Amino acid sequence: MKALVAVYEDWGIGRDGTQPLVIPADRKFFREITGSSPIIVGRRTLEDFPGGRPLKNRPNIVLTRQDIEIEGAIVVHSVEEALEAVRDWGDDVFVVGGESVFNAMLGYYKRAYVTKIAANPVSDVFFPNLDQDPEWKCTDPGRELEHEGIKYRFCIYDRV
Ligand SMILES: NC(=O)c1ccc[n+]([C@@H]2O[C@H](COP(=O)([O-])OP(=O)(O)OC[C@H]3O[C@@H](n4cnc5c(N)ncnc54)[C@H](OP(=O)(O)O)[C@@H]3O)[C@@H](O)[C@H]2O)c1
What we know:
Mean pLDDT: 97
Oligomer: single chain
Largest sheet: 9 strands, mixed
Number of strands: 11
Distance between the termini: 15 Å
Number of domains: 1
Shape: globular
Bound molecules: NADP nicotinamide-adenine-dinucleotide phosphate
């Protein structure tokens, strides 16, 4: 299992249910890396997807504690149920947020694709700072890229 996230300098990942600053190339990167693999996503982050709908052409496992149905998604109510839903996919599964789901699944992903955006908008949700976690190592810092004056890089962290 892998995580995919875009973080600002303070490892903030969003505010008021959305991402205050998005790099278009990061959206493209998301599509390329996740391909047709299953994603595991929190109910709140799903609401921030285009049209509030699951992504097409791949299993969307949506975590919620509510008794609801979501068209185009597999609704699960616990981490255990999420793991069961992706059991046949091995490592080819992406946890894509938000904060509560990244935290709940932290023990399960071995790799994190972290888009580091050199900006500091105020966030109210965060990803764990992997630079301060001895269990994680940046194995590929990516090269520095730039969008409208904002520098960013696609980094890979692996659990050591
Ligand atoms: N920068 C990035 O890469 C990135 C990626 C994703 C999201 N984000 C940002 O993150 C923010 C959303 O994060 P969030 O933490 O507020 O919401 P979230 O993790 O997307 O969704 C939270 C909801 O998921 C359900 N849930 C979470 N853990 C669960 C568990 N263990 N069992 C059952 N259900 C569970 C609950 O749904 P119910 O309330 O329905 O019970 C909970 O309210 C937004 O600002 C978004 O833009 C950023």
